Amino acid sequence: MVALPDPELASTKAQPPAHSGTDGSATGTAVMALSRALRISLGMALVMISLGLWIVSPMGGDVSLFLIKLVFAVTLLCLGTVFLMSRELDNLTSEIQVDPVARQIRVTRAGKNGQGPVIDVHDMDALADVSLYDSVLTARGADGQLLLALHISDTQTEAALRRVLMLKA
User: Fold this and answer.
1) What is the pLDDT of residue 71?
2) pLDDT score for 75
3) Which of 33, 90, 119, 138 sits at a 20 to 30 Å CA gap from 24?
4) At a CB cut-off of 8 Å and minimum separation 6, what does 78 contact?
5) Residue boundaries of the structural domains of the chain
6) How large a percentage of the chain has pLDDT more than 90?
């Protein structure tokens, strides 16, 4: 996601970010940690129940009941693994903010292991290369390392980025 300032606010003083560095808000960190703990607990419980169905229940019986138990156990196992694997999706979301007044690009991403958001601030003047080619915004640091590569699907956002970054069409 790309956040651009409102046109009427572009001439006003830029607001400092709510979080700086690696420390996030205590509330956001607590909610993320609680959500993650609940997903892991629910996933482990579902996996254990699916395995427990075969340990506790007797093996003899009707074939149709065996198939129902098999389908139920496989469903619980799949749901459990989905909850266990969904914790990896926490780190996929990030946001890019372009501040034309302060001439900065801020990349906000989730911290590791349930930590709060991490904001990387890059001065546009210190970047070696900022380009918008084939609807992909790329920025490289002074050392040539790729800092961001983002596909822009909206033509209005692309035009606004070109205007803010003063890039040629």
Assistant:
1) 93
2) 95
3) 138
4) none
5) 2-11+91-165, 29-90
6) 12
